[in-house]
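Task card 7
Instruction: Convert sequence to structure tokens.
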Amino acid sequence: SVEDQQDRRGLFYRFVRLAMPVMMRAATRDHKAQSRLVKDSGLDWTIARGAGAFTDGPHTGRYHAGPITPAADRRVSRADLAGFMLAAASNGKFLHSLPLVSQ
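Output:
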């Protein structure tokens, strides 16, 4: 029934909400260690991150980089993220920073 499906969905989301921090602890620790290695390398660096979900959409050249605002879309196409990375490597605007990229 619909009610049974809703109950199962509710249980699944509650499980995910409780389990994810535990399951992601090692990945988060690794991510922080990798960032520290890059920052301490003595090289010029920029660590670009997608703000949320990646899409297979086209390169539009329209994206936001920097702090994420409440109005920002949490998605970004892989093509736009790649375009941002090329631009950041060329212009140095985000040198020694960790910008989040979103649509």
